[in-house]
Amino acid sequence: MNHCFFLQQVQNFGDPFFLVIHEGETLEEIKTRIQKKLRVPDEDFAKWKFASFSMGRPDYLQDTDVVYDRFQRKDVYGAWEQYLGLEHVDNTPKRAYAANQNRHAYEKPMKIYN
């Protein structure tokens, strides 16, 4: 018997944020709050996919899924052991790197406090 495994590489980008997920809340309800918080136009947001990640593996969610049930309450070993991921195109501008720079380096977000 042959088994094929689709290996999907996850590349996190953007600014992570905390969002309270209430018991019994569906993905559809959470998506409404996320879209409002991030101010994403309807046309773009309709293309986004949502997944619960555990140990780096995505489990894609449907609007009717109860998100709270996807996460275990336990002492978390790593900061990214479990999280809700938003799959979408990275529209941040790309920079050309100088020859002496690490081509695998990433840009860190800058925050300005007034």
From TrEMBL:
GO MF terms held by the record: cysteine-type deubiquitinase activity
Source superkingdom: Eukaryota
InterPro entries xrefs: USP_C
UniProt entry keywords in alphabetical sequence: Hydrolase, Protease, Thiol protease, Ubl conjugation pathway
Catalytic class of the enzyme: hydrolase
Biological process according to GO: proteolysis
One Pfam family named in its UniProt record: USP7_C2
Domain Ubiquitin carboxyl-terminal hydrolase C-terminal positions: 5-93
The protein's Enzyme Commission number: 3.4.19.12
Reactions catalysed: Thiol-dependent hydrolysis of ester, thioester, amide, peptide and isopeptide bonds formed by the C-terminal Gly of ubiquitin (a 76-residue protein attached to proteins as an intracellular targeting signal)
Family to which the UniProt record says this protein belongs: Belongs to the peptidase C19 family.
Protein name: ubiquitinyl hydrolase 1
Species the sequence originates in: Brassica napus
